[in-house]
Amino acid sequence: MAFVNTLLRTIRCSAVHTLVQEGRSLSLLKASHQLTQSRKIMLSNHVRKEEAKSEPNETLDLEEWKSILKSDIGNAEMVKTETQEDSSLNEMQELVEMWRLAGRAVPQSITTEQLQVLMELPTKTARKKYLKYLSVREVMKTNRKEKKKELKESKSKIESLDQLETKEDTPEKKNTFLLHVWDKSIDTMQRWKCVQAMKFGQPLVFDMVYEKNMSRYELENTVCQLMESEGWNRRSTDPFHIYFCSLQPYSMYHKELVKRYIGAWDNVFVTATDKSHVEMFPKEQLVYLTADSPNELKHFDHTKIYIIGSLVDRCQQTGLSLANAKRLNLATARLPLDRYLKWDVGAKNLTLDQMIRILLCLKDTGDWKKALSFVPNRKHDGFAEPAASKKRNIKNDGGMEYAASTKRNLQKNSKMYKFGASKSFIKPERTDDTSIRSTRKRWWEEEN
């Protein structure tokens, strides 16, 4: 287009110069000017029509425009908050490094999650305590790793020596008639049992409403016990269908469980819900197990749904779970520890994994002695012997007379005072024989 216009201009200018030199009239100039202009306009109109065809009319949507503007503003705010968080995290990192240089108890490596927890703490003393706790935990972790390494090295040395001895003595046995069971097949079998329990098994509820009644350390310990309980349940022959009731999303319980399971939380065969156990099951079937209950659990009922409070055993808050059960009008029960164990001193609080092992054993066998063997020996002095009480069925008069005569004989034969049982305090028998009395001498006769 531009090339055509320039070409026309050059032709027109050359024509004007020739006409002026020859002395022609101006009418020809006007005609040539109109002709050149009309050609130029025709070309431009044609191009405009093509542009109009290629670019159709688009109507502007105001709501879309508003949403785009809002999203841009939100993104800008997000970027600002992220930059602020990064700056605050960097400041906390610098503060931790300064305290480390000052010689305070600070861990050598700290994660972003720990830095965020450190930022949320309100006071300086709380931050110091948390850093000290992290440093102590780090030292314990390193000590454990060193011990494991030493044990592995010692085991490897012993195994190498044993292998050398066996090679010298006997040849290796490669073939066997026993079928090797792989770990993968065992895992699939356990998962299949858990799936069947989730479909047809007896429910067991863990009440997750005690988050505010525990510190962070106690909550982490509780989550560890919950994971052990899930493992024992998965490995049992007849597992429970475990429910985590009142587990709020993004709560401390939920965050710690997701963190400990390392991406496998969605694959765990457990029903986690934010509803309470009262909303999930009928109240008539619920029994809350608590150590403060006045009712003793005499036998395991397969039709009931037992509830265990997710409290760590170190958090000895007496009456907390019992008050929660009474508030909801639920039946309560406690394990018969006094009846079967010599438990004189100390709180009767057990860990969550011990509770589920006791309940699994009761479910399979119904034997209290076998079930209570999972209670640690440091908490009691052994099993209590059953009292050997001989009960007589007295139905006739002869039986009544026999009982009365035995009672009289016992009263006659009891010759001991109440304050002692030694032989020096035995009462002498009274005799009515006067000859024996006459032979005895008085104290005034002995002097004469």
Overall shape:
extended
In CATH's first tier, which class of the domain at 197-379 applies?
A: Alpha Beta
How many β-strand runs?
6
Mean pLDDT: 75
Strand % is 5-15%
How is the biggest beta sheet arranged? Answer: 6 strands, parallel
N-to-C SSE string, H for helix and E for strand: HHHHHHEHEHEHEEHEHHHHHH
Strand order in the largest sheet: 3-2-1-5-4-6
What does this protein look like?
It is extended and about 125 Å long. It is mainly alpha-helical. The model is unreliable at 28-44, 53-57, 388-399 and 414-428 (pLDDT under 50). It contains 16 helices and six strands. It has helices at 2-22, 26-54, 62-101, 112-120, 124-169, 183-200, 216-235, 252-261, 277-280, 320-327, 337-340, 352-364, 368-371, 397-413, 434-439, 443-447, and strands at residues 203-207, 241-245, 271-272, 286-289, 305-309, 331-333. Helix 1 (2-22) packs antiparallel against helix 2 (26-54), helix 3 (62-101) crosses helix 4 and helix 7 (216-235) crosses helix 8 (252-261). Among the domains are: 1-20 and 32-42; 103-168, no CATH class; 197-379, Alpha/beta knot (3-Layer(aba) Sandwich). Helices cover 57% and strands 5% of the residues. A six-stranded parallel beta sheet has the order 3-2-1-5-4-6. Strand 1 (203-207), helix 7 and strand 2 (241-245) form a beta-alpha-beta unit.
